[in-house]
Amino acid sequence: MVGGRRFRPGGGFGRQLDEYETRVGVPPMGEPTTEPSGGLVDSAVYVQGHRFASPNGLADTYRCLQEQDDAMAWIGLYRPDIDQITSLAREFRLHDLAVEDAINAHQRPKLEQYGDTLFVVLRAARYDDMREEVEFSELHLFIGPDFVVTVRHGEAPDLAAVRRRMEADAPMLAQGPEAVLYAVLDQVVDGYAPVVAGLENDIDEIETQVFGGDPNASRRIYGLSREVIEFQRAARPLLAMLGALAGGDGADEELSRYLRDVTDHLTQVVERVDGFRHLLQSILTVNATLVSQQQNEEMRSLTAASYAQNEELKKVSSWAAILFAPTLIGTVYGMNFVHMPELHWRFGYLFALLLMLLVCGTLYLIFKRRGWL
Questions:
Q1: For the chain, which has fewer Cβ within 10 Å, the N-terminal or C-terminal residue?
Q2: Are 177 and 148 in contact (CB under 8 A)?
Q3: How far apart are CA 180 and CA 62, in angstroms?
Q4: What is the rounded end-to-end Cα distance, in angstroms, of the chain?
């Protein structure tokens, strides 16, 4: 600090920040900053792990931090507006690329170093029991020598619980911003456990649906597979991030042990989620096989029904043909022609009956030989 104000660096970094502030309209250094408090959830200044002050706004937080030696500011924001973000960028010399990421959100989990400031993006997850869906939210952290800024873009994680836990452990909080980063990472990873349990329960239900012949199983398998893939994208990058934090130069040994414990928990989560993805692929294959078998059974049933119907039709057609023959003969002999020799024949009636029997018998034998009767 110089003259009670934070020193503004020169060179390219300073010019980048000046250009950024000019674009977004941040007032020059030395002018009072006014910011809406809608996105400010909590702001506190800590000294030796104890809450020293609870300022009402960002400007009061800056002022209190400047007046206290060996103090740390912890600022929590929820979906802040552009004025609050740019105010923080001006005061703490945040890099414009990191600020842009924090404003736009929709970033992948990552850890980037900008000078003496660490920018961390985390993807928290929460399982919605009512809708049986996984909700993902984004969390950004700016970690500096004497400040921590958390920017939430969703409901998870519960940073108020993190703050309460850290304030109850003053020796841990006294280790500075790195301890807060550890606590937030621990909260995010702990939040994955209920999600894993919810996904496991969904997979059990899907297995029941598949073997129960539920036609909606395929749609649910696809939806759950998308959630598992999204979960992998949120959790897997944290392994490399935790490894870098735990093994970094100058890392506190106690914090490194805590980070390794978080890494162990995260490894279990990642392994289980990987298993879920393979299991869902197997279930999808089994479901496709069962659907194919069901379709084959239906085709066989339709074929058998069609065959039986065809056999019945053959029988009906055969008997119709047999009965049609005497009708035809009787119709011919029933016509009142004068010049028909057989009409006055003594054996004409018997001849007509024998002819009917002969034709019907012949047709019956033919149809019987062909298997129609």
A1: N
A2: yes
A3: 19
A4: 108
Taken in order 249, 167, 241, 243, the sign of the CA dihedral is positive
Give the separation between CA 279 and CA 206, rounded to whole angstroms: 11
Tokens encoding 306 = 């069609």
Task: Look over the chain and give the mean of its residue pLDDT values, rounded to a whole number.
Answer: 77
Phi, psi of 147 (to 5 degrees): -155, 155
Q: What distance in Å separates the CA atoms of residue 22 and residue 105, rounded to the nearest whole number? A: 22
Q: Which residues pair with 134 in a beta bridge?
A: 127
Q: Which of 156-160, 260-264, 366-370 has the lowest mean pLDDT?
A: 366-370
Handedness of CA 288, 291, 295, 300 (dihedral sign): positive
Q: With left for phi above 0 and alpha for psi between -120 and 50, is residue 7 left, alpha or beta?
A: beta
Residue closest to 92 by CA, chosen among 161, 198, 1, 176:
1
Q: What is the pLDDT of residues 331-340, one digit of tens each?
A: 666 655 555 5
Cα–Cα distance between 333 and 326 in angstroms, integer? Answer: 10
Question: Any idea what DSSP says for residue 226?
Answer: H
Sheet harboring 117-128: ordered strands across? 50-53, 40-47, 71-78, 147-152, 133-143, 117-128, 110-114
Three-class SS of 1-12: CECCECCCCCHH
CA 177 to CA 143: how far, in whole Å?
6
Tokens of 263: 């890494």
Enter the tokens of residue 208: 């029941």
